Amino acid sequence: MKNKNMWLPVALLVLFITLLCWILGCVMYNTNLKEVYHNLTSVEYMDPIENIRYSMHFGKKLATFSGMDEFLKKSAQGHPDTEDLYIVTADGQVLFSLKGDIPLPKNVASSDSPAFSIAGGSQYSKLAIDDGSYFVVKKPAELLNLELVNRYIRLGIVALMGLVVTELLILLAARFIGDEKKSTNVMVLILALWITGFSSYVGVVNWRDYDNSIGDMKEKIADAVTSDIAYVEEDLGVDGKYIGDLSGYLVRFPENVPEIRGVEVTEAGEVITYTDKDYLAKKGVDYILQTALFLVFSMMILAEYRMFLDGLKNTNKAKAEPTNE
Amino acid sequence: MRTAKQFETDLLRFLWRLLPVFLVTVCVFAGGCGNRDKEAAVPASGEEMGIQRHIRVGCFNTGEYYYWHDELDAIALELQRNGKVTGYEEKPRETMEEIWADLCACQSDNLEFVGDAYYEQLYMTEEELDQAIRRTDVDVMLAIGTTVGQYLTQRADEISYDYLVIGSADPVSAGIVKAGGERVNDKAFAILDENRYGRQIQAAYEQFGFRSVGVVYADREDAYSYSGIGQLEQKAEELGFEILRLHVDEIVNEGEEERYYRELKEAYAELAPKVDALYITTATIDDTMLPWLLEDLKAARVVTIAQTSESQVEYGALMHIKVQDPVEEGTYVASCLIEYGNGTSVTDLEQKFEVAPRIYINQKVVEETGVKVPMATYLVADQVYREVKQGEK
Description:
The structure holds 2 protein chains of 2 kinds. Chain A is built from 9 helices and 8 strands. Chain A has helices at 4-44, 46-57, 68-76, 106-109, 142-176, 180-235, 246-250, 252-256, 277-320; strands spanning 84-89, 94-97, 116-119, 122-130, 133-140, 243-244, 260-265, 271-275. Chain A has a 5-stranded antiparallel β-sheet. In chain A, strands 7-8 form a two-stranded antiparallel sheet. The two termini of chain A are 31 Å apart. The mean pLDDT of chain A is 85. Chain B is of the alpha/beta class. In chain B, the strands form 2 sheets. Chain B has a 7-stranded mixed β-sheet, sandwiched between helices. Chain B has a 5-stranded parallel β-sheet with strand order 2-1-3-4-5. In chain B, β3, α5 (146-154) and β4 form a beta-alpha-beta unit. The longest helix of chain B has 27 residues, at 4-30. The N and C termini of chain B lie far apart (116 Å). The model of chain B is unreliable at 34-48 (pLDDT under 50). Classes of the chains: A alpha+beta, B alpha/beta. At the A-B interface, α1, α2, β4, α6 and β6 of A face α1, α14, β12 and α15 of B.
């Protein structure tokens, strides 16, 4: 660095940009991973919710829903990570719950609370039954928290390594490129590359999480269908040939899970799920836009930084050429 | 000259300019890639009730009937549960008179069940009926069944007490209240669910999509009412199916059983080849006779829908969607009594009450009939019977 005064601002601002990018990356991880967890829970409990809706179609009312306690017990079977289930009204009144005596935190029960929230070491997914009621699933938040911390650390390591490499490259550029203007442009280019690489990394990790979750969704749907058929055939003793309108039942999955286009049960009893490629493409664009926003923001920082450097240089120039007075 | 202080100022200015952009971006990222759930707000409420004034209660019953028996028992149990009476034990009781006697023996601060204000209309003479009408030592009469409800409504000008009509299948067509719950006088109250059978028929139609429904009932005005024929006709028009009806006089006097069941079986046999479904309406049918009565229908693969109770499904009807429940209704009537005792006028009591429906299927009959029941229905069915209980014949 030809000008001693330039080293500190460059080092500080690269650190600043990296820190901001890391924070944004963590926010994106946090938001997207919670969404993935929420979506998986909603797929897990979509079947019981649909059964409640179907009963309500016959005129059943939630407040007086006969057999709801048993129904909740049955719904929780096969989901050992479920801590509790609640049926709540829009104003937060708990109508039924699996364990009965454990209250729902107020910030989870209220109508303006988010669909997914964390309170007291548990995660809560609030799934709409109809316009006036919700099915709330409580699970331990340890796994999510662990995964998030893991992601933050990994992103932190990537940020730290990137920071060191970027600083080194900038230092080398400043040292070996004689022309000050050129060296500044190269520094900005190095920073732009670093920001682009970092935001792309965050975007790819987020997309990979989402993409992997689709496989989990398909698996959960297949489990739900298999277990429903087993319940009707084995528990109720109904021969498969007397089960009607299977397609009317299967349509609940694509209707509620936008990633799924259709579900089919083969004669051998195998459940096949088809993903909705159009929806996934749209979702892919969403993720690209999210990453692009990250990038644009980072580039704005860079532009501001460039202006800042120019200002600094002008000042230094003025300092080097004192006035005639 | 540029100083370190100026550099700090530039740096701060730079950071300050970035701050709003950063905050907006964080907010956008925190929004994620789209939320798939919807939010809504519908209030719900509930309140504790007490009894503030002393009320004397009588019971004017049409006759002994399992539904009314269970409803009266449920009223007593709910009052006991609420602490409004004490001493009413949960145990089997043979007759409604027995329930009434036990209720009268209970302790209560403000509710008095008048021991001799218990009537069974079927066995009363004109003179006894007049005496019941002219009673002045009762504040409110539990009028059980359509016939008593109609009778008290016809003589409303002569009575001094209010009356709560319960256990009436269709109080509107019986003239006890007007459509929409409008009162015909300022003494009457009736549990009202104007479209209960409509919902039942609609649900059955959605399962089987029948084009014709057979129905057998007595050719009388009250039978038309309690069999829910008006609602069946309404649904037939709405959904586009045909109704084939036959009339059989119900058992009124002892010794008519053989005639009644023979005529009913003949009517079912006559309908069997002509209909897709049979609606077994409320009537004096003993459940144990059903396996025999429904033989021809089963052979003709006719779907049988029980109107009254799940016990008919145990004895061979294919499906029942419960739209009336004596226990739930009784529990509601108890809350109305408490409200009445609290000072609410009988004309201000909420008449509209719908029970939570339940679905009952007899899988054995499904197999014998060869129909298919939708998968989604099996998943929400409250009870699936695997056998048909055998009856008397």
